[in-house]
Amino acid sequence: MSADIAHELHGEREKERVAAAATSARVRIVLAIGPATAAAGVVWAFIQPWRLTLLNPHGQGFWWLFVEPPLYIVLVGVLFRVLIARPLVQDMEDAGR
Amino acid sequence: MILAGIEPKAEMVHWMFATGILVLGLLFLAETIVGPEVWARRPWRRYLWPGTMFLLGLLLWPVMALYTNSMIHMVAHGSWAQVLMVSGGAELGVVRGKLHSQYWRLTSAGALLVSGTAFLVHEQNGWFFARAAFLHHALGWTLIVAAIFPLVQAIRPRSIVAASGFAMTFFVVAVLLYCDRDSAAILGHFSQFAGVPHR
Prior knowledge:
The complex is a heterodimer.
Chain A: H1 3-47, H2 62-66, H3 69-96
Chain B: H1 2-6, H2 10-34, H3 36-39, H4 43-46, H5 48-66, H6 71-96, H7 106-122, H8 131-146, H9 148-155, H10 160-178
Helix pairs in contact in B: 2-5, 2-10, 5-6, 6-7, 7-8, 7-9, 8-10, 9-10
């Protein structure tokens, strides 16, 4: 093998390695978005427990029991992870192949 | 009159819309991270955020019709409904392939500008009257300043900074909407004319 071809192959491998690392970082970020969102909802629920009327439902009307903002955030985070992030990661890996 | 007893309080409506805005922010962020090519690999995914935006515009019509405490509120809610539907509809047209120009993104800039102006115009009180007044001013200026992001996207569709800024705008708006209470103090300030404060 000539030195030129070897050098070219090494350059291509380096490019592939950088691209794979970038994809891997993006995969990790996409997978982390949902849990991070859900964690924000949980933290909020601990900081302001009175925003969760389900914890003390006695005497609350329908809307006060239905509208639970911290739980909404947790739900959005979980749904994002399951419905959006997973297929997105699969597509990123397919695109990387 | 009968509806007044069964409809949710204004703050609850803000929290529900905050959730919709949060969903939009997550979708924009994910698309920005993975890039438009990967995002478009599954056809249903392309319709997600334009559809959500259109749906939020649609849901603002009942808000306009039911929360009639003042004419200016009705005009503000009605204008939000229209601009969100126009923006979502235009983006649906783009992903469907019926519309082709990158300048359709200007409808999003218009939506942010109109929404921000409506927030500022329909808030009659000063910043520190109560938390709701503060948030209306903060939301209004946030949206007006953030209109620069879709404006840049219309000119440079591949701009990562503009796409990230657009996504982040929705997170800021969601947080501000979640902070809303019908009557609560803001940074220790609460007008004696603002009712009974609560947490």
